[in-house]
């Protein structure tokens, strides 16, 4: 079991380039990946996304890649046409104003579009440096998810253990339920018929009501769901969706038991079971 929340960070300087990778994970119903790369490395987004999606199944994951070029290889070109046009325009303006000045080189270089700069950036070369750094950051991210997932699993299974014990206590009240129904029927017959009470009729009416109010099937299904929940949590590294479904089934059986049983102790157990199940569902919101 893994948590959906985690954090990983790694950085290094590779020659003339400083690289840093930061990964953050949050709980989310589905898998959502956000990749933040410098614009000149946008062609690498698909590779980063594929790397993460092949290792995560649920959660909102943000990947930030920061690049600082310490000694960039820059190519500079001069736009001769723009420079000439600026030169002629400045001189023409000076002449029309009666000024004896001419355009200086510094004035022309400051104009937009005269000098064009282009950095020599090879995306493949960046990926060769970025891929191992991404792997190191993700390893830290994964370690955090596993560590938190272990604690979450322990807490969830402790609540499952409580539910299993509670189900056993509820099942033990089966005879109380039968006795309660039988006593209620007998008291009603005595009110109506006095001492002329037919024991066979009481047993027949009791049997009819037991078919309606018995909780043995619900207890059986509840126990099966709890067993499947425990097995799924222990064998599946990403059980979140299946456990969500099992919680719905467990909740349905608990509600049915509560609505059927007139035994006060069973009602108390049902309240405690609902509380434990709510704690489990809260924890599952952060399970992959």
UniProtKB/TrEMBL annotation:
Domain (Endoribonuclease YicC-like C-terminal): residue spans on this chain: 172-288
InterPro entries according to UniProt: YicC-like_C, YicC-like_N, YicC/YloC-like
Membrane spanning stretches: none
Keywords per UniProt: Endonuclease, Hydrolase, Nuclease
Keyword Hydrolase belongs to the record: yes
Family: Belongs to the YicC/YloC family.
Protein name in UniProt: YicC family protein
Protein source organism: Breznakiella homolactica
